[in-house]
Write a structure and sequence with these properties.
Blueprint (H helix, E strand, L loop, with lengths): L1 E5 L3 H12 L3 E5 L8 H7 L2 E3 L1 H7 L2 E4 L18 E4 L5 H4 L3 H4 L5 H8 L4 E4 L6 H6 L11 E6 L2 H14 L2 E4 L22 H10 L3
Length: 208
């Protein structure tokens, strides 16, 4: 699969590295231009480009930029594409967003409004990137960690669940995109290692 990644910070780098190791073709991008990613492209063995080029490149596109910058994401280039939202809301970084503060929406629903013709799945937000890079285990392992995802399309969620599995984790479906609040920052499952069965129980018990 060809995977475009918008954002080359810790999240983008970790997902890109694991995707390449799993046999996927990856293009990383950032807001400063591909020339600033020269060394990274060699260490990960990926392509680099602009955000628009990464959006056009990917069959699947990962959004890994600060939430406050989500309106910079190219809309038309991502029309019809599967998009993974990895974002979390940090007031100290993103400023106050009243509709999130009041629990009226989720980060992924905000992104979905910005990308009305894209298919959004919430994933890769509830794990520390060092754990993502180094915590994967073979299928069937007793120590395999569960990771949550949320989205409105079962086929799209199956694609993302496949990535989780390739990276060494058990996917746990948290429900529709509107249920993505269950795995956001500050919830009981956020960045807490647990197996898939425990994770499923905790997601169901989470109170908004």
């Amino acid at each position: 699969m060809e995977i475009g990644i918008i954002g080359a910070g810790m999240v983008g780098r970790a997902i890109g590295k694991l995707a390449v190791a799993s046999g996927h073709s990856v293009m990383l991008s950032n807001s400063r231009g591909p020339q600033t990613l020269f060394s990274l492209s060699r260490s990960i063995a990926c392509q680099v480009g602009t955000a628009d080029e990464a959006a056009a490149f990917g069959d699947l596109v990962v959004i890994a930029i600060p939430l406050a910058a989500y309106r910079s994401i190219p809309v038309e280039t991502l029309a019809g594409k599967l998009v993974i939202d990895t974002n979390n809301y940090y007031v100290e970084r993103d400023g106050n967003i009243p509709e999130l503060d009041e629990g009226e929406t989720t980060t992924s629903e905000m992104l979905a409004r910005h990308l009305p013709r894209s298919r959004i799945v919430k994933a890769f937000n509830a794990i520390i990137m060092d754990d993502l890079e180094n915590g994967g285990r073979l299928p069937g392992s007793s120590k395999r960690r569960g990771l949550p995802l949320a989205g409105d399309n079962s086929a799209d969620k199956a694609v993302v669940a496949g990535l989780y599995d390739q990276f060494g984790f058990d996917p746990v479906d948290a429900g529709l995109l509107a249920e993505g609040w269950r795995l956001e920052r500050g919830r009981s499952v956020y960045c807490v290692p647990m197996d898939a069965e425990h994770l499923k129980d905790e997601l169901e018990k989470t109170i908004r």
